[in-house]
Specification:
Elements lengths: L7 E9 L2 E8 L4 E2 L6 E2 L2 E14 L2 E13 L9 E3 L14 H25 L6 H10 L10 E10 L2 E8 L4 E7 L3 H10 L5 E4 L3 H10 L4 E4 L1 H18 L1 H7 L22 H17 L5 H8 L3 H9 L3
Parallel strand pairs: 2-6, 8-11, 11-12
Antiparallel strand pairs: 1-2, 3-4, 5-6, 6-7, 8-9, 9-10
Helix pairs in contact: 1-2, 3-4, 8-9
Amino acid sequence: MSPPLDAVRVERVWVAGGVVHIEARTRELTVACPDCGRGSARVHSRYGRALADVAVGGRPMVIELSVRRLFCDGPRCGRRTFAEQVEGLTARYQRRSPLLQHLVEMAGVLLAGRGGARLLQILQVPLSRTSVLFHLMRLPLPSPATPRVLGVDDFALYSDVYGTLLVDADTRLPIELWAGRDAEQLATWLRTHPGVDVVCRDGSLVYRQGITDGAPNAVQVSDRFHLWQGLSKRVSDVAAAHRGCLSAAVPEPEAASPPTNPAAPSDEADTPARRHAKRLFEAVHAVTDTGRSLNAAARELGLNRRTVGKYARAAT
């Protein structure tokens, strides 16, 4: 929003160091007290404010504004003086214009920290990613509407401490978050937010009782994750209970008859890796068969002790 033209008088404009400077001062108008609303034009003093505004022609802009501090003559008002604010140009404790502040906030909402900082750098608003995130976290969250389909689930905060999360199942956006798994707390929330038609929950009896008390007409269902989780647990319990029956139902394997004429190893099996393994096998057994230890054989052959042990235990 642009400020009213009759509220500010521009005195001069100049460019210094690549920055556009605008020197202005507020006019002698009646301003309402922020507490009692009574108008006042009696000046206490003046002071200067430096406000950053959106860039003009690719150059950053700073508005050096002289504003008034006024007396409040309301007999019942506790505020004796107050600083005037220009609508659309100033805000309390703010060093940016509302238009520039909105630009910073939207950059944080759309692109978060790093992306928002890069976009603002292009728009001649140099801010770090942490500053963009700071302004993003200051934004008030919109009040969510009561969902038609509500998702209720718990999560572990740490150790055995759990919390409850309410989610709009249609938009998949979180709604409420509180510590603990309490049926009465869930029932109270449902009573204060009528209009829930379907509640998607896990198999907890606590949540079932809370939904029954708070929204008795709501249909209680289970989501896909908890259906598969319950089915997997049930199948695992059944398999563990009937483990003996499963092994008894497996037929005994038929004994394989020994080969009458074992085939000699083919030429294709005689690979370099097989010849290397055979040389290691013979070398290790030549040392260990004399009664020497594995450590002594490893030192003598220059092999790792585990390699020597593997070949020493092998029969062929």
